[in-house]
Structures are given as structure tokens and as C-alpha cells.
Amino acid sequence: MSSYEMHLHDTHPDYDNLQHPTQHNIINIGRFTTTHKLNEKIVRKLPTDKSNPINVQALDIESRIYHHLGEHKHIARCLRCCEEYIDLRYEPYGDLQAFLRREGATGKVDDAFRYGVARQTIEAVAFIHQKNIIHSDLSARQFLVDEKKNIRLSDFGGSSLHGSDAMVIEGPTHYMPRGEREPNSVQSDIFALGSTLYEILVGKMPYEEKPDEDIRRLYSEKVFPLDQIGHEGWREAVRKCWMGEYKSADYVLRDMSKHHHTLTKELSKVKHALEG
Questions:
Q1: Gyration radius of the chain's alpha carbons
Q2: Domain boundary residue, one of 43, 61, 89
Q3: Cβ neighbours of residue 256 under 8 Å, at least 6 residues apart?
Q4: I need a labelling partner for 128 at 20 to 30 A (CA). Which of 134, 160, 192, 260 fits?
Q5: CA-CA distance, 147 to 152, in Å (whole number)?
Q6: Last residue in a domain, options 56, 89, 122
Q7: 131 and 64 within one domain
Q8: What pLDDT digit, counting tens, does each position of 35-59 carry?
Q9: What single string gives the DSSP state of each residue in 119-186?
């Protein structure tokens, strides 16, 4: 047994009627791991290729990170983690990117939901940074939507723990321009946080219709699609993330806390107007 193993006991009711991982219950194949749905409560992550040391290492890192993070309202709920596998709570709404596109297309995602989820996203990133973790691949698809439609950050297989080398980098829409050998950092995570907030507020990735080369050029020139964000306070927060003006995610949270009361009043006025 690993020194960092954590788990629910086999007799816990969530482990009733547990299936074995098979080709038939795969729900996701990622860069390093494959996820199986074992019952209506639990999914299990396993190395996609157990003979590949990178896949095994990624699962080991993710296990260590879940153990290090413990329980938090905006972190994926880890039921068991060890060197061999990770068991997480099955979240029926799936990942945030898919949820926003699916529900947004039917008009079921309003501003109140977007602003609330955006704040939760900042809280999650602030928390992992306080615990000396750099996610290294932040985006809306890395957040799960739970049964109460709150979000939980997941997928730490490529992350940096206590200064270790990250095994991944962000995609072009979330990547902070930097030298090829410059490591992932709090600043690169905050840049990616800005792009993730954009996804939540706008409903799509920044410049997602453009080729990767064009996105890299525009970001290097500090040309950002800020005019797509309707609310001035959130627009300014995203701008500061992209421009490297925040020292930590705590400062992003502090900025948005100033706007929270105003946002609540604005949304309340809109709600009353519609009901009237």
C-alpha cells in the first residue's frame, strides 16, 4: 500500500454493484489515462498503457495531488487514490466546456450561472496555488459539473506538485507566450485562467475559429478579444489575467469580490423586470 493511499472502505454503499473496468464502460480516453464508469456513483482512472512509464507516472502524480489537496468544494471528489488507480465521484453533467455548449445552445445558461461558475473557477485555482500545485492545462474542459451544478477542478496528471516539472502545457487558446524552456508557473496558470473565464462568460474559447499560428501571434502582440465580454468588471479581470497584472489568483478573487454586490443587484433588477 502506498504511503499516500486514501480510500473509502469496500463496504461503503457507493461501492455496491461495482463493475470491473472493461472496454464497454470507458467514458473517456485522455492523454495519459482512461476513465471507466463502474456504477452510477464512481468512475475509475487507469493508465491508458500500463507499459508506458509516462502514463504510470501521470497517474501517480495525480494520485499524490488528490491526496495532498484533500476535500474542497471546488475540487473533484476523490474516493480512492493510489499508485494503481484513482476513483472519483461520477458527475452526471460532465465537463464544463461540454455543459456550456450543450446547455447554452438551448438558452439554459444565464448570466447568473456564468458569473457564479466563473467565481468558483477562480476559487479552485487560488486553492491549488495555495497548496503549491500548478495545474498546467487549465480550461473549461478540466472542470466537472456536479449534481448541484457547481464546478470541480480535475485532471491533475500533467500538473506540477511542489515545483516538480509539469508533463503538459496548455493548448494555444490558453497558452501564455513564453520561451520554449520556460516552465509552467503561477503566471502561466493565471493566463490560462483568463482564457477559461472567457470560455465561461462568452461560451467559446478565445479565437477558437483561428489557426493555432494566428492565435500565438495575436497573444504575443497582446491582442485579445476582450470586446466579446459584456460585463466591464469581468472584462477587466480577464484582461489583467492575460496581461500578467495579477501576482496570484487570490488577487483575481479579490477584484471580483468587489464586483459581486453590484453584479447581484444588476441581475436582480433584470429578473424583476422580466417577471414584471
A1: 19
A2: 89
A3: 118, 119, 122, 233, 234, 237
A4: 260
A5: 11
A6: 89
A7: no
A8: 999 999 999 999 999 999 999 999 9
A9: HHHHHHHHHHHHTTEE-SS-SGGGEEE-TTS-EEE---TT-EETTPPPS----GGGPPP--TTPPP-H
